[in-house]
Amino acid sequence: MSEPVFRFIGEARPGGIVAVCDHASNRVPEGIELGIPAGTLDKHVGYDIGAGGVCERLARRHGIGAMLCDVSRLVIDMHREEDHEALIPVNTDGILVPGNIGANRDARVKDYYQPYHAAMAEWLDEVDPGLILSIHSFTAKLESDPAQERPWEIGLLYNNDERAAQHAIRLFSELGVTVGDNEPYSGRQLNATMNRHAEEKGRPYCAIEIRNDLIATETGQARWAAIIADVAGRVQLAVETFDQ
Tens digits of per-residue pLDDT, 178-210? Predict the structure, then answer.
């Protein structure tokens, strides 16, 4: 397996802020056939729309080094535990992925999942960041439940360590942003990457979900990257002050 699994953008400063994006790409490596209808990869089930663009702008315009996954979550979902039943999704948001039925799980873990997380672990150990941003996006409506209301513009997720998240919730709210506290998903149920690379290591983090209609364009991505960079800088300062 020689195709890239991830890419780095910008330069991460030791002790500074870094960003990671598990669902940045909808790329399907050569040789994998998912058997899905045309256009499926361009939907939210294929990748987090706009999240990769926000990370690129955080790196290129705001000095926040970033690591982005370069494989679609329909191939393997980096934001799940290695033994999670949905690691290789067969049915996601009501969409069947027939090519994943009976897929070689061990091969995909070895080729994509393990290299991604090993590289992230090495990178974070080297940089020793003061704050990690985990950037995701969510849909205004679920295809499988379009009646469900999702009024938030942005959400902060956390499991046991809510230090940075609570500061971020307050700061985003002060800017007039409609913020979800462990919404639209709960980090106590879905926080795999940050559980592994942040909470287990005692590293402060903000797992940020941005509503994808707000970052579907380059203008929206630039706007939210600027807002997030500003808030993240103040969150890091607040966490460091509180921990002293």
Answer: 999 999 989 999 999 999 999 999 999 999 999
Calculate the alpha carbon distances from 168 to 59, 133, 160, 183, 205 in Å.
Answer: 19, 11, 16, 14, 10
Q: Among positive and negative, which fits the CA dihedral 40, 158, 174, 21?
A: negative
Q: How many residues in total does the chain contain?
A: 244
| pLDDT tens by residue, 209-225 | 999 999 999 999 999 99
Q: What are the tokens at 193?
A: 């990457």
Burial class (CB in 10 A: 0-12, 13-18, 19+), 175: exposed
Cα 215 to Cα 45, 133, 218, 222, distances in angstroms: 16, 16, 7, 8
Whole-number Cα distances in Å, 198 to 46, 120, 131, 136: 25, 11, 9, 16
DSSP secondary structure code for residue 28 in this structure: -
Question: Residue 224 — φ and ψ, nearest 5°?
Answer: -75, -30
The alpha carbons of the chain give a radius of gyration, in whole angstroms, of 17
**Are the beta carbons of 33 and 103 closer than 8 angstroms?**
no
Rounded alpha-carbon distances, angstroms, from residue 89 to 71, 74, 97, 204, 225: 14, 6, 7, 30, 30
